């Protein structure tokens, strides 16, 4: 069994929590089960093929409507299970964009 490399505490679920993965361009979507989650990442069980997870980034859709989501990147794959890291927004770009709009 792998050693724990986690930097933050995880919340584990006693029941299956269905979520979806979606490509950042919206061209693919996969059903999965959220096994545990933290402030920095999650462990999921993917249904179907996992080849699309090789994309650099994708979204974890936490609600059925897609209104609650996190941008992610793949950390590891073990069979149908995968570890993902949440991608933080780049604040520098947002500040630059808002200053450009103000001019």
Structure, explained:
- It is a single chain.
- The chain is mainly beta and 103 residues long.
- Helices cover 12% and strands 47% of the residues.
- The chain is built from 1 helix and 6 strands; from the N terminus they run ββββββα.
- Strands 1-2-3-6-5-4 form a 6-stranded antiparallel barrel.
- A hairpin with a 3-residue loop joins β2 and β3.
- It is globular.
- The chain starts with 10 loop residues before the first strand and ends with a helix.
- The mean pLDDT is 83.
Characterize this entry briefly.
By secondary structure, the protein is mainly beta. It has one helix and six strands. 12% of the residues lie in helices and 47% in strands.
Q: How many β-strand runs?
A: 6
Oligomer: single chain
Question: Residue ranges: pLDDT <50 for 5 or more in a row?
Answer: none
Number of DSSP helical runs: 1
| Rg, Cα atoms, Å | 15 Å
- Main-sheet strand order equals 1-2-3-6-5-4
Sheet-strand content, in percent, reads over 45%
* Average pLDDT rating: 83
Describe the biggest sheet?
6 strands, antiparallel, barrel
Structural class of the secondary structure composition? mainly beta
Question: How far from one another are the termini?
Answer: 56 Å
Instruction: Report the principal-axis shape.
Output: globular
**Element pattern in H and E:** EEEEEEH
Relative helix content: 10-25%
Summarize this structure as a short list of keywords or feature phrases.
103 residues; mainly beta; 6 strands; 12% helix; 47% strand
């Amino acid at each position: 069994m792998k050693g724990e490399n986690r930097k933050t505490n995880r919340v584990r679920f006693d029941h299956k929590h269905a979520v979806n993965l979606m490509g950042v361009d919206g061209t693919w979507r996969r059903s999965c089960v959220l096994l545990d989650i933290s402030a920095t990442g999650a462990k999921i069980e993917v249904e179907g093929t996992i080849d699309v997870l090789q994309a650099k980034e994708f979204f974890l859709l936490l609600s059925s409507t897609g209104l609650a989501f996190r941008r992610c990147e793949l950390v590891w794959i073990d069979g149908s299970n995968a570890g993902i890291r949440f991608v933080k927004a780049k604040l520098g770009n947002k500040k630059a964009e808002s200053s450009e709009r103000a001019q």
